[in-house]
Description:
It is a single chain. This protein is an alpha+beta fold. It is built from 8 helices and 9 strands. The chain has helices at 47-53, 56-67, 99-106, 111-130, 179-182, 194-209, 218-226, 238-247, and strands spanning 14-23, 26-33, 39-46, 77-82, 86-91, 133-134, 143-145, 151-153, 160-161. The strands form 3 sheets. It has a 5-stranded antiparallel sheet with strand order 1-2-3-5-4. Strands 6-9 form a two-stranded antiparallel sheet. A hairpin with a 2-residue loop joins strand 1 (14-23) and strand 2 (26-33). Helix 4 runs antiparallel to helix 6 (194-209) and helix 6 packs antiparallel against helix 8 (238-247). The longest helix is centred in the middle third of the chain and has 20 residues, at 111-130. It is globular. Ligand AK4 is lined by residues 20-21, 23, 25, 28, 41, 43, 45, 55, 58-59, 62, 75, 89, 91, 93-94, 97-98, 144, 154-155, 157.
Amino acid sequence: AQPLEPRNLHLGMFEIGKPLGKGKFGRVYLAKERSSGFVCALKVLHKSELQQGGVQKQVRREIEIQSNLRHPNVLRLYGHFQDSKRIFLILEYAGRGELYKHLRKEHRFPEWKAAHYIAQMAAALKYLHKKHVMHRDIKPENILVGIHGEIKISDFGWSVHAPNNRRQTMCGTLDYLPPEMLKPGSQDSFYNEKVDLWSLGVLTYEFLVGEAPFEDTPVMTQRRIARADMSIPSFVSPEARDLIKRLLVLDPEKRIPKDERPTNRSSGSSKSGKA
Ligand SMILES: O=C(O)Cn1ncc2ncnc(NCCc3cnc(NC(=O)Nc4cccc(Cl)c4)s3)c21
């Protein structure tokens, strides 16, 4: 049954549990819907802070986009409600919390674990892109881990329908920004969901190496991104190196191209273009 069926959702319906974390715009709590016992995560957003941040429209868009998404590797947004001062997002609870905490603790993932995670990310992105939704903020901080170790892309606060030429003032790290979002050429420079494939390449690198490929001072990071200037350590396997190199391509249309002809390289195997 849909435990959160009634449209008149309100705070009194929930027993609030431990705090799960606090983001830039609000806190997240473990919560249980009283009548059904349904466990979820409740994100509390203060309208005043959203106004100050000028992000109310983004929250509305996130709710609209994410309410229609159903995929095992995309964190569910079950519903939302508000009172005079706050907006509440009713989210799927991810039992093993934030992926970046696991990454920092382990420094970097062994290839079997990184491959398992990147395969799930690729499946989630394939699903999102088929619906012409681009996330635009893929990074370890926006990936959660479920109780069975499966990963969930979360926080669609920056997601939009593709294509898009809106200039968003980015906050947070530049490390994951694709070149086409760094300095859009002319005003009508559109970018599309391929931006997520660049970020997937950065994520693959960071899982395997333990730091982002273009990590540097902000100015240098932008310059290195614009040139796809990175070096891959020798302990990274040839297969992983190949995947990173196929994702961190400056031309968005050349990232993991769909109908790639196997290159007739003399040495090495020519792999199919399948992502
Ligand atoms: O991650 C943690 O801190 C702790 N944690 N641990 C377990 C767990 N299980 C589920 N959710 C968690 N956290 C909430 C993740 C989010 C999902 N969707 C969001 N959307 C959003 O913040 N939107 C938003 C806000 C303000 C402005 C704008 Cl523009 C958009 S946040 C969990």
